[in-house]
Here is the input.
Amino acid sequence: MSGEPKLREAFARGDDIHTATAVEVLGKEPSELTAGDRSIAKMINFGIVYGISAFGLSENLEIPREEAQAYIDAYLARFPLVQDFIQRTIEQATRDGYATSLLGRRRPTPEIRASNRQTRSLGERLAVNFVMQGSNADIIKRAMIAIHRRLRDEGRGARLVLQVHDELLLEVPEAEIGPLKDLVREEMCRAYPLDPPLAVDIGTGDDWNEAKN
Here is the structure.
């Protein structure tokens, strides 16, 4: 959504985005990264785009606030278009009084015009958070509708059981597993046109845990 070249290139290559972020922000080679480094980068990735503050990041990572701020500063320096995206989103929400998802859904953000700095900062985080998470929610719902429609129209025995954030859980007869993998991948990837395009991982198993592993 920001158009940040380094992130777009990483997604297009199919890289693990948290590993790619760790390399940029922590200044390490991929071979030097630990599982802890990736976890830090993951927290930074989600924290920044969802509007976390240095205080919130320090609490989540259990590190001093100054260190958390240094991580945020390093991230925004390495990915400047993300900073531009955040600023544009805040400015737009301040003008409009609401934030807008990719599919046009609106969330009022009256806090963003408050005179109180804490309340205003909350409104700014809510605006950025909604554009990201609201867009994610819109896209997965569009995929759910398309998958349900195709299961019905093609007379499949499979059924859509559950949605959790960006994951869909289906119960599928053994004989339909192959075709259903293709069907689900098609509909999830084309739920909304992005550049680079959306990608999806698919797993199968006798239960959800087995399918995820």
Summary: The radius of gyration is 20 Å.
